[in-house]
Inverse folding.
């Protein structure tokens, strides 16, 4: 299935310098897909000239006269920047001109705009941010990563439904397992909301594994990890911080003296292979789930390779029919609830 | 100041095989301190014979006839095992015969027993679990790590007071900085409890830095990091999981073929130096704070070096007068609150 991806070409710390080379790379590797670059035409054309690429049927420009700043208030952006590259890219998804859109811009503004323009899928109360992380066994889908600081049990169940649909769409894995992030594996552990969520998950048609702990995430104990956005955001950022520190320590130790530098030189292929394996750029692209459209948020500081990975993820979600799978799971859950109500009455 | 440390010799996955060699090592390095080994005399004497060490004035045995299992319910332990090695060790602290105690046993049972026997310090509503983690700049004290799944703003403030006292006692750092773990650095971020806690921290005499994010922990942005026990436990265990995975990947890459194995051999001193720097055993020993006595929880799977580190931490807390510093901070906070009430009326 050929897909068309709308790209907020102006978003992120580096704007067109990153988004456009990433788009060109994507088109080379996916020779039947189409990309629409959304933003200030002058800036887009200047970057295309720099990288010696010209407009062709599969690489179009859609003009947008405004740019959303990284620190602007989402509410202000929503009210006053109706012709921003971010909003116009989302509009293309809304109108069916694109199957998905990708932005490295302001997360709050992207979420608010996407929610306002696209609306929520029926049966989903709140959008969630989901991302994949590397594990021993492959990768794990974790959500919510910061869209919702307070969640009830029903929200956590909906996150599980959405994460299951996302894993199915991306990995074509039937019946992926779902873990509920908690501070112990026993049922009695955790706060009231987590206990209630555990109960709902058990009643659902999902492949619920049970409670998992923080150290189970990277073991790849389950395919999906569900938690509230406060916990998920802290866990994700803490691991980013630890990975940076460990990388820094390793570099320092290899740079300590002549001997260690030589050892580092000889170990270069090994260290490169290690780095490739855990390269966070390969996992760039967080999905804003629960909307009537596919929206991917790239890290603001992403380079062209990282942004390229986010475009790939967007295309995979579209090709995998993610929205359809979410709706299917929601319907099944509602049918099961109605069945239960009938049985009880 | 000479200190006496009571050790639950039977606790942990390995019992006396770990606790006693650790105690002997500690006494060698601290020639004026005393250790009381608490547990089944036969088991303790057998281990002492194995490692060719005899009882001397600085190494005493205190008999206890029961052992707490790693999976026993804390309530059951509290009611039925009144002569457990864990409880007798805590009793020694209560009676003033020891300045602190260390156990690698069942965390829930240790917390419940310590709280029951020692009671809470006036002005502290709930005990917290605190631990040090390595950072770019040195180490950071993080709490709560799992004692309290739900916290209110006042609890978080009390954690901050206790963390400040702990850092002062251990590191002799005047006015350590306190960060409130959140999902953004701006004041508007986070849930209601975190926002209220931020307000209280601003009113306190503590050196409040403001909100910090997960990735700031390992940067060493602050000396103390405060969060509720659910978030802290997930963050801690997630980093443990990530560190294990990265270590595993690194080993795998160095073991891939003849060439990578040779590179690994040449890099051995570098990798050892790196490992030493982030060795989790050096950070073993979580403090149960808020009690009228010093209690350290060692990791259940600790080896003798890790358990030795926990004994050292216990002694440092005692020598640093940690309980006194906590009480001082609590008093200052209550004085400030009364002052405010007077001003308001």
């Amino acid at each position: 299935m050929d897909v068309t991806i709308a790209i907020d070409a102006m978003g992120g710390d580096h704007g067109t310098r990153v988004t456009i080379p990433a788009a060109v790379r994507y088109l080379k590797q996916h020779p039947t897909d189409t990309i629409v670059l959304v933003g200030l035409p002058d800036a887009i054309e200047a970057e295309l000239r720099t990288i010696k690429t010209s407009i062709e049927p599969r690489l179009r420009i859609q003009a947008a006269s405004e740019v959303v700043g990284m620190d602007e208030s989402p509410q202000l952006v929503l009210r006053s920047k109706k012709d921003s590259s971010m909003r116009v890219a989302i509009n293309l998804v809304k109108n069916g001109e694109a199957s998905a859109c990708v932005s490295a811009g302001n997360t709050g503004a992207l979420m608010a705009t996407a929610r306002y323009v696209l609306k929520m899928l029926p049966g989903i109360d709140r959008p969630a941010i989901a991302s994949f992380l590397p594990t021993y066994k492959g990768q794990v889908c974790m959500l919510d990563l910061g869209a919702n600081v307070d969640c009830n049990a029903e929200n956590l169940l909906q996150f599980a439904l959405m994460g299951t649909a996302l894993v199915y769409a991306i990995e074509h894995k039937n019946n992926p397992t779902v873990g509920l992030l908690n501070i112990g594996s026993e049922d009695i552990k955790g706060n009231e909301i987590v206990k209630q969520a555990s109960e709902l998950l058990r009643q659902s048609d999902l492949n619920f594994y049970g409670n998992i702990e923080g150290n189970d995430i990277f073991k790849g104990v389950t395919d999906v990890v569900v938690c509230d956005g406060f916990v998920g955001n802290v866990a994700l950022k803490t691991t980013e911080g630890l990975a940076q520190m460990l990388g820094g320590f390793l570099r320092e130790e290899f740079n300590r003296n002549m001997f260690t530098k030589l050892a580092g030189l000889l170990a270069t292929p090994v260290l490169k292979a290690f780095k490739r394996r855990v390269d966070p750029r390969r996992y760039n692209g967080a999905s804003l789930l629960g909307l009537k459209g596919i929206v991917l948020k790239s890290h603001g500081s992403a380079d062209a390779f990282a942004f390229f990975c986010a475009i790939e993820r967007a295309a995979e979600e579209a090709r995998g029919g993610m929205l359809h799978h979410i709706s299917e799971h929601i319907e099944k859950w509602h049918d099961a609830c109605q069945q239960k109500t009938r049985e009880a009455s």
Observations:
- The CA atoms of residues 122 and 164 of chain B lie 17 Å apart.
- Chain B has a mean pLDDT of 93.
- Chain B touches chain A through 56 residues (CB under 8 Å).
- The domain at 129-281 of chain B is CATH 3.40.718.10 (Isopropylmalate Dehydrogenase).
